[in-house]
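Sorry, explain these tokens?

***
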Amino acid sequence: MAAFSSGQKWIDFFNQTIQLPPAFEREHSAPDVSTPIRISLNTIEGLTGKADAEKQPEYQVFVSLYDISYRKFFGKQWMGPLLAAHGGGAKRPKLKYNQNLYFHTPIYNANIVAVVEVVAVTQAGILKPKRVSCGWGIIKVFNEEKKSQEAAAQGNTLPAQKVQLNYGTPRALFFMDDPVDENEYLKPIPDCSLSFTVTKHKAMFSVMSLIPENTLIGAHDVIPGLVGSNNQNADALKKPKALNRVPIQINNLRIQLPPNIEKFEEELCEALHRDRERMENKKLSGNSISVQERRLIVGVHNGLNFVEKPETMYLDVYDEATRTLKPQNSPNLRRSKRFHSSQRSLTSTDSTSTCLVVKNKIELNEVIDDPMCAVLFTLEYVVGHKVSEEEKKLSQSITKGHVQTVSVRWGVWNPITQSNNPTIQVAFHGGPIKFPDEDFLFKRPDTKMQNSEASKFAGGTLTLQWTIGDGTGVEPLPISHLIQPGSMSSMRSDGDDNMLMDSPTGKKPPSGRRGPVHQTPQQSLMQPEMAASVYSGLIPQQMQPPMPMMPPGYPYMPMQQSMYGFGAAYQRSPRSTVKVSTEMQEIPFQPLHAPVMALPPQPNRQQGLSRAAYAKLYSTDFPAIVDANGEPPEVIDVRKPWEVDLNREIQDPFQCNEIVFQFLAFDRSSTGETSVTDYGNTMFFTFQFYRLPQVTTERVMLCKPKNELVSDNSSMPFIIHRLEKDHPGPAGLQIKYMMDPTYMKAGEMQMFLQHLSQQILYIDIWDGESLFLIGQCAVDLKFLCRNGHEAVQSTFELDVMKTEYEEASTKVMGTDPLTQHPGYKTWLNGKLHFRMANIGYMVDHRTKIETPLFIPNKSHLIVSQTAGNISYPGGSLQRESTSTKSGLASKKKVVRAHHIAEKNREIAQLLSTHNDQMIPEKDETPQEPDSEKRRKLARMEALRQKQGTDNKFNTVMAFKTEKQERMKDYKTMEIYRLQTKKDGIINMLSQSISTEHTINPSFGTSEFFEFVLKNPLNVQQTITIEHEDTDLRVITDAREWRYFKQLNGVHTQVEEDMFIKESTSEHPQIFLRPKETVQIPFKYLTFITNNAVNTTPPDPEKALKDDTGKRAVQAMQTKYVRVLFKGDDGKALSILQLKIEPQPHVVNQTLRFYHPEQTFFKKSIRLPGSQGLSGPPGGPGTVQFFVRCSDSNVIAECKPVQTGEPVDVFIKAALAASPQIKHFYACIYSDPFLSHPVQIWQLYIHALQKVDVSCVEGQTSRFNLLLRGTQAARLVRSFSSNPREMQLYPSEQFLLAAGAVHELSVAVRPMKEGTKQFHLNVVDVECHQLVRTWLISVSCQPPTISRAFELQLPVGGGKGSNKKITYTNPYPHRREYHVLSSREDLIQFRENHFTVEGGETYTIGLKFIPMMKHGVAEILVFINDEDDKNEETFKITATYT
């Protein structure tokens, strides 16, 4: 028997929580973030005398919130306890109140104040207590809170503040203008003040959902859901802690409204119709009100406010007599009246047998384990107002009636107090009573003539069945009455008389939501894209399979799937209906959305080709790879381990490396659900090798299928050919890099060899026609290390993996890991046959190499010139001869006489006699205007010599003029020498105290060194360390200094508190005694890298023609930093000349995302293999990782987690307009000092224009997109990322006129419920450029299941099993239908299209494809009309035994 719930105790508690709303303008302009405030009332001094001469009064304090700007009290008033005064004398008693008040509000404004009134209360016998006001005052909450924050920022504690109490009553505020403090009618009470403090109470953030806004809560007030709120001796809000949240599931919810649903809705429409007539003051013909929707709002309420945002569930009318559902907007309602009346005539139905039902399960995850926490049900009707003919004439734009939402009933249920009753009956309330949503309710029937028991059900009842938990371990109660059973033997096997009836239990309700499936020994037949959920990062450690031996840094990613493409996680994950509104809430140490795994293509999945494959590949005319002697290189078997000896590579005499990459063939995969290569036979590749610019290759053509390359005949390998005028050219695409040490930096060859031994090359494969990403593959570059051979080569068959990141699931995380939505899916989308080689050459000795090939052992200890490292050899005053361009002292000093006009452009322009003889600098390249000028001057000089007029001193006047010009030039040069003499002397003297040091940092890696500094003076000095580089930093923390010493093996002494902390200078300072020597620790860490990404790919052919040796010259620029150690007088005592030679960094993973434009990209990425990583302790039993990004505008964080738990990296980035790409790097560190990154990720975020579409599974939804033309006419074509589920029209190429607007028709028919993203590209077919791109986000709802079937099929059933299923046309005329299924790989139809006469029955032939493995499959059969609208959906559960 169902337990009855009236919720009267909860209603009594709720009626006590009455508060006033704030001003309308305040409420609607307030932000979403609320600020928690604590007000501490300490003492009240100078109270007035006794209110009664005989009895000592007690005092009570009242506090309210008041808005000065709008003259309005709001919120709930707080009434303090009654306390007696102690001390201060009898005339002026002193009250030690010591009470804390808490509230939170989103209205952060200085005009929001707290009004405090002190009242004296005396008992006068049996009469009511006598209350006398003792004064009132105003606390400016936010002004005082700001003062406390400023004091806390300075490390001080704000003392208690005082406010003067005034005569009268706080009601006088209604008549006072701002500023209130200066009002002339405000009379303060002498020596009467209130002592208080106001602070921001951050501890309230975790429990603010339990307390409504603008409600003053005392320390001892009852707050349902808060630990210790019933304890009167403790302050529960000082360090608040919420009670545990219990998830519950509600099933089989039914609503009955007396006398029946039809009569109730008819009376409701008539009442609304009469109300509309009274409002419009005119008579309306007929009934202008009709019911559009029925909704049930379900939320968790603790008596003060809703704990979480309520959920909206849609209701359907269910007829218990015929056991049929009548959804309002379902295609099943498109029946004729004739057929519908004939169906009703079959059975005699009673109108009282109808009720409202919720088709889906209701999951509530925020039910608090408190008896006063209740589930609130609100019944709403959405009614439509018809538009009259007069209104249509007045406004032609109105084509529909107005819609109004009406609340009719509400009920409350306490699940904690009725946990032993699985079936609950809730009484509905209505009429003019207080309601949590503060809406008007429809009237309740009159119960004056009824008894008390009958009156409980007068407003209607709600019946439900419920379970505690997520429902996976408890079988829900049967819901077979919601499934329409078959009226005949609708499925039978050919040649067998055994009939399979419709499933009597109906494991899938009409909403398409599957019930929980228990674990069975059989393997579940799930969708292929859910196989990614079996990764070890999402499975508990005790359930993980044994992990094979793998290279460090790469996670375990098992790719072996079952034959049907299913795993274990989906078997326990039901098909859930998308909720209408779900508010995300923060969970401690974990974001709400499910993290995605950072799983790149695994290099350990590379495979060597078979013997036959080698023969076929070499028979193709690929470019031959030979060494310097014309011999083929040494072949490396990639299936065997290849150990790299870095020292052997460094000592190899063949230091010149020619790197060769060859793209040979591509195998299209038949297992991928989406193959973008269906559009054409062209593709191109993008990758980045070493530190060289990213390469976008030319388009290549796939032709000449070679099925003999592999043993699998279903695959289609194609040979890659270069394109020559849209025709296939030579076979294979070859790219070469010549890495010559002559054109590399000092010691860069060692870094290059180390890069080859550690790095993985990621190759992106793109479709050449649609410009969609086909997938990504990875190859280990260690096979390019020659290990003493003159040349090596290796051939691979690389898996091309496609990863698609889905939107986060709406289910709150933290439950069973196997039920968490993985947030992504990965599948095999082809295989790339790839070959690479490294050919060694001797360095050309004719080329002079001025830099060393390898970096000597780095020294972390630098001794300054002042500390005994005197290496200054002297020099001249000229800066050019004594220093390099950077200001560093040159080791080789050569002084050669040059004309001053040749070395200084500024002086040459000032000289009069050499303006026509200017010679450019040696390093500069003459420009075209200068050469033309010299040519003209040479011709003029030759003409003068021919005519004999080249003598400039042919007259006395000319001689004097020339002499004056020369004297002027001499004076100019003298002034120049005097000006530069001082700089030259200072530069020469500074070299005697300068020390040079070179570091080779890489991106995200800290370079540590110590500078030995000595005070050369005989007096103490305060040394200031100054430099202008933001990446170089002096280590002032002793813990960080000690950590880097241990990390780099530096065994010098660490001095605590060496630097002056009280210094006002922005630079670090240190005190040195006379002749004292200290070590100054430095750390260089940079996050600057080249993040530029072109939205249009460059011309690949032009890029390939460039000399790769010249590319190597275009390296990262060398930087020079000058560090000055200045004394008290501001003069430099020592100088450190730091030369920074950046080196390329390693990229562990490359991630590519697609996100809507001009929005914030938010993603939680799980660190692969993080369970085994050890980070620094962040607290008891926790580890902490740290994240830094190359883009300072990107927010990245990693919160502490428990030891052994996976680590999630949260990234938030702002995106620009489409089609821009945001590119940045993210470094993950395991130490707080950011010494060396554990992982470096490269992220690409494509900003696309988003279009949201809502549709039903198995049913086509159509919409249009507007495409605007560019400045010139183009021949374009539109492409879909999934042609099977999204079709475009026009699908062929068309002319996009300049400036014109073209309309694209899109038809979407998803075959799986949930949220899925498609991409739509519009490409210029002539230039192969991307014109426009869209991101189509499809939210797919499950269909209504009308019939469910179960059958068993034998494993390996020969040619398959044939079955039949019948379908009856419910319309009175002929209709054409077509049938399709959600699993085309498991079932086929005899006819995909058929025509049925009105009321006739048609038999659909099914053929089940034989399977060779045990398992259970769930198949949906969709029967759609000629417009592809779903008419019926059958569910078939096939068990293969």
About this structure: The chain has a mean pLDDT of 75. The two ends are 40 Å apart (CA to CA).
